[in-house]
């Protein structure tokens, strides 16, 4: 897989430092609380594992699966709920864990859903924030790194369901794309 990568943007070490930094901040900000942590599959699977190990709080971990990108590099405007959570978020503080906020549409969808279900507060911790990709106005509260407006893979992020298991975030070589 390494041969398919043109440039590594965030290596394992820098991702670890981001997890430590944000984990400390979340631990401080939510001291005394028991937030629900909502991990957004599939992309956030590694970020969830690494960030949560740096959070010293009693948390309830939930996984939700939504779908916006259909394997390739282009986005669609419709988001669908693929696998829902089965616990009640009414009156709870919720921290959404995302691998990337790009157009912002996935996050908007989730925030609306949680607000409709009566969450007390909703915050977002994302590894990557691609601010130039935004199509809707929305902000993350905890950000690992700002990332430039290019399609990235690795550390949970896929191209056609591959590269999620790369331990770093990078950009694919042009010849690897088939669409
Ligand atoms: O800000 P947006 O433009 O909405 O993009 C961000 C979302 O897109 C990706 O998920 P995707 O729907 O591709 O599913 P995946 O996590 O299973 O790869 C990523 O993991 C985020 O959840
Ligand atoms: O840059 C990206 N890479 C992979 N998946 C994504 N989903 C939104 N943006 C991206």
TrEMBL record:
InterPro entries the record matches: HGPRT (IPR050408), Hxn_phspho_trans (IPR005904), PRTase-like (IPR029057), PRTase_dom (IPR000836)
Phosphoribosyltransferase domain boundaries: 12-160
Glycosyltransferase keyword on record: yes
Keywords noted in UniProt: Cytoplasm, Glycosyltransferase, Magnesium, Metal-binding, Nucleotide-binding, Purine salvage, Transferase
Annotated CDD domains: PRTases_typeI
SUPFAM superfamilies according to UniProt: PRTase-like (SSF53271)
GO molecular function ontology, one term from the record: guanine phosphoribosyltransferase activity
Pathway involvement of the protein, from the record: Purine metabolism; GMP biosynthesis via salvage pathway; GMP from guanine: step 1/1; Purine metabolism; IMP biosynthesis via salvage pathway; IMP from hypoxanthine: step 1/1
EC number in record: 2.4.2.8
Cofactor(s), names only, from the UniProt record: Mg(2+)
Any one GO BP annotation for this protein: guanine salvage
GO CC annotation: cytosol
Catalytic activity: GMP + diphosphate = guanine + 5-phospho-alpha-D-ribose 1-diphosphate; IMP + diphosphate = hypoxanthine + 5-phospho-alpha-D-ribose 1-diphosphate
Subcellular location field: Cytoplasm
Domain of life of the source: Bacteria
Enzyme class: transferase
Free-text function comment from the UniProt entry: Purine salvage pathway enzyme that catalyzes the transfer of the ribosyl-5-phosphate group from 5-phospho-alpha-D-ribose 1-diphosphate (PRPP) to the N9 position of the 6-oxopurines hypoxanthine and guanine to form the corresponding ribonucleotides IMP (inosine 5'-monophosphate) and GMP (guanosine 5'-monophosphate), with the release of PPi.
Family label: Belongs to the purine/pyrimidine phosphoribosyltransferase family.
PANTHER family for the chain: HYPOXANTHINE PHOSPHORIBOSYLTRANSFERASE, HYPOXANTHINE-GUANINE PHOSPHORIBOSYLTRANSFERASE
Protein name: Hypoxanthine phosphoribosyltransferase
Protein source organism: Leuconostoc carnosum (strain JB16)
Lineage, uppermost ranks: Bacteria, Bacillati, Bacillota, Bacilli, Lactobacillales
